[in-house]
Design brief:
The protein is of the alpha+beta class. The protein has 17 helices and eleven strands. Among the domains are: 188 residues, no CATH class; 101 residues, no CATH class. The protein is flat, with a radius of gyration of 27 Å.
Amino acid sequence: MDFIVNNDKYRQKDLRIKDIWDDINWIYEKARLKNKPKFILIAQSSKEEKLMVNYFFNIIGYELPYYSFVSELILKRVIDNIRKQTRNQVKENIFDNIHDTLSPNQKNSDGLTDIHLSKKIYDLIFDYLYNQVFDQIEDNVYDKIFKQVQNQGYDILSQVKNRISEKVGNQIYDQTGYKISEQSSTKAWHRLERANQLQWDEYGLGFAFNSSWLLLYSFLEKIGIVQNDIFFRYLEFLKKGIWSIQCFDEWCIVTEFPKKIHRDIENRLHSLNSSAVEWKNKDKNYFIHGISFKRDLWERVVADDIDPFEILKMQNQEQRQAALTIIPLQNLLKRTKASCISSFTRSNIPQRSNECVVENQKLNFSNAVKLFEIYGGYFNFEESMKMINYFCPSTGREYFDFVPPHINRASQAMAWKFDVKEEDYINNFVVET
């Protein structure tokens, strides 16, 4: 997804309604819907999208959580159908390619192979590998941003309200001639300010929801495995800069791509120098290793002079652990008066080293794995905190991670981290990253 989002080739400077009108109508037609949209709203951030929808529904008098049956139908009748068709085409083409590459003496009477790779067995293998691939490439950026936006509620500045009112009002007027009165606008905001959180129930339409399979199939299309006109049209529509789409009976709202997305080496939303997500309207989302932070808290955490003691007082456990990972280990240990309660050093090279490691790659198992304890009473916590400090034997990079408080041995902590038995970790485990 980041290649698309951060590449100006696919991110137009200004998404124009006239450039996507035919595409939106095409999607409604494919979903066999009675009505086509009378107007399209364009938002420039996820938060702006939610505010625009909530604001407009309150203008027309809806006060219940907003549920889009139209988006549900489009998802089932169009998007899921595109995905299934393309998936089946990939499956069939790969099977045909395998069959065509076999020599005559490798095929038996049923036209398959002597190892009895029947169509049924092939389908089972393909389905398993397919699911494994998507588990690896699935992108949950939208979910992370959505939760952060939802939790912010309606505590927004008056200039933001004015911007939303003006944007919704102008876009509707330009397309329909209908003008929202100032009185209606004021009443809508008064109703919204009484809400605890953004009301929203949406379906997965757009690049933000479908990036993993869209980009995979886009690659397969380039190498000739996928040939599907409907898939190609939908993909080209999204490449115009469509982050998400939500469709209703007579209107829809489209959100443009973010300007930038920053991640860490584990593909989590992350930045210590700026917001992890930056939008065209200057809205920003802040994350540290995939954990959401409000801007003021993020700024305190990333400051060079942040005191680890202040971080340890954070009530949110996920934020506390994410923030602690950016503090130099020795500073953290010294300031928290942490004590080493267990250490482990390999006495022999693991049994599987020769099997798993590339030939001539040197592994260093001489660094001790250490388990530290931070006394909970020092910070008024119910339990003490424990963390494991270790080095990758191939890269030499130092890591530390928090582990459950019931763990008392360094080797036990590493076994828990990698979800293996302690005995297997000691004897067989190789790469620690």
